[in-house]
Task: inverse folding
């Protein structure tokens, strides 16, 4: 798959065996930056040929997405003699992607980087689109650049070691993209769900490729996120706020699932989405994608509203929301009221057994 970008076109390649590591190791002037957990899991198998003194092994947490970690990474790379001709080879999930993409875009005004996503969320969603993001104070993803890697390699086998929670976080984004792909794609992912729950590799490969294809349609049309690409924020207006008030204990994709449930309840109340379609999507897909417990969702609705008010994409006085309609079209409204939020939360709480 090729992605068009005004910065540079780039490719996504699916691989079935770990032989891709050989060609990465042959890259001239490279430094690996590897998620610490992934390194521990694969250092004596897939990564056995990586020379550890030419690698940065990075422990991962959401706290890492800040300018201080970026400085530390610059220091580490300078110690490893990184020059302008360096290629950074990044193996990890969305967090490492966000930091390393930012570093790659700023070090020497931009160095080459290759991304090998190791989480479902990163393989099926974040790896394309070129966004790099850092959190700033309490604001999530406030700082960032557009800087796609020159190549992306997808090895679905990495997903077999992912925790259930991180796996289901990725499934949330896969489901979101399929809903955004329309009614047929939604039905397709519903029918694949039993296999996906079992991490069946051929179904995963199909679901990842399909998700990327749907996302590609949005990002190529509006690379810098000034219009249509904004619709990809479906589930994220509530989702980002849920993630924040849970102190990132609820992972991104799981927060997005709850965000889609709430957004659909608002759409249904406004009469743009029928009871039938809302029920079908909730019961057959969103509820099935939720791994977090009801207890984890016992937040105070006022805290959620406060967090939504901090959303960087909000422009008007009221809250913004991406909503779906009856024909699986997506629209952005800027007049979501606090009462509507309260109502959607209480409907959700009553609906979840
Ligand atoms: N840049 C973008 O376009 C974009 C889009 C969506 C999300 N994001 C960001 O991505 C982040 C979430 O990314 P994520 O869900 O990939 O999580 P992540 O990077 O936090 O990884 C989740 C956990 O899985 C571990 N892990 C990674 N690969 C593994 C593997 N193969 N086996 C076992 N464990 C593994 C990591 O060490 C970590 O503990 C958020 O910060 C979000 O804001 C960015
Ligand atoms: Zn997301």
Result:
């Amino acid at each position: 798959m090729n992605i068009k970008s005004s910065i540079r076109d780039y490719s996504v390649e699916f691989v079935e065996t770990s032989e891709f590591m050989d060609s990465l190791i042959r890259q001239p002037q490279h430094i690996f930056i590897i998620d610490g957990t992934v390194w521990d899991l694969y250092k004596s198998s897939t990564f056995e040929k990586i020379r550890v003194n030419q690698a940065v092994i990075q422990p991962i947490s959401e706290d890492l997405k800040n300018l201080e970690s970026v400085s530390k990474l610059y220091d580490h790379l300078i110690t490893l003699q990184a020059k302008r001709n360096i290629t950074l080879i990044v193996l990890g999930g969305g967090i490492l992607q966000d930091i390393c993409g930012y570093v790659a875009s700023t070090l020497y005004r931009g160095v080459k980087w290759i991304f090998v996503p190791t989480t479902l969320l990163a393989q099926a969603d974040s790896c394309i689109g070129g966004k790099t993001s850092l959190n700033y104070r309490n604001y999530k993803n406030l700082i960032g650049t557009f800087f796609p890697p020159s190549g992306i390699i997808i090895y679905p086998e990495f997903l077999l070691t992912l925790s259930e929670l991180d796996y289901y976080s990725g499934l949330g984004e896969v489901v979101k993209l399929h809903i955004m792909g329309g009614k047929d794609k939604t039905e397709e992912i519903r029918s694949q769900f039993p296999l996906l729950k079992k991490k069946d590799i051929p179904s995963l490969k199909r679901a990842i490729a399909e998700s990327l294809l749907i996302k590609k349609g949005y990002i190529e049309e509006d690379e810098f996120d000034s219009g249509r690409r904004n619709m990809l924020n479906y589930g994220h207006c509530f989702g980002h706020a849920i993630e924040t008030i849970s102190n990132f204990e609820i992972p991104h994709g799981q927060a997005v699932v709850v965000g889609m449930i709430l957004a659909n309840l608002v759409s249904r109340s406004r009469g743009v989405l029928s009871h039938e379609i809302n029920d079908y999507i909730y019961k057959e897909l969103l509820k099935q994608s939720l791994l977090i417990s009801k207890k984890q969702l016992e937040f105070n609705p006022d805290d959620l509203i406060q967090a939504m008010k901090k959303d960087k994409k909000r422009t008007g006085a009221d809250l913004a929301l991406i909503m779906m309609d009856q024909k699986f079209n997506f629209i952005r409204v800027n007049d979501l009221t606090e009462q509507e939020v309260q109502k959607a939360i209480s409907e959700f709480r009553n609906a979840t057994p």
Remarks:
- The CA atoms of residues 25 and 50 lie 7 Å apart.
- The first helix runs from residue 20 to 25.
- The pocket of nicotinamide-adenine-dinucleotide (ligand 1) is lined by residues 35, 37-38, 41, 60, 62, 65, 92-98, 118-119, 121-122, 125-126, 129, 131, 133, 141, 158, 161-162, 166, 169, 251-252 (CB under 6 Å).
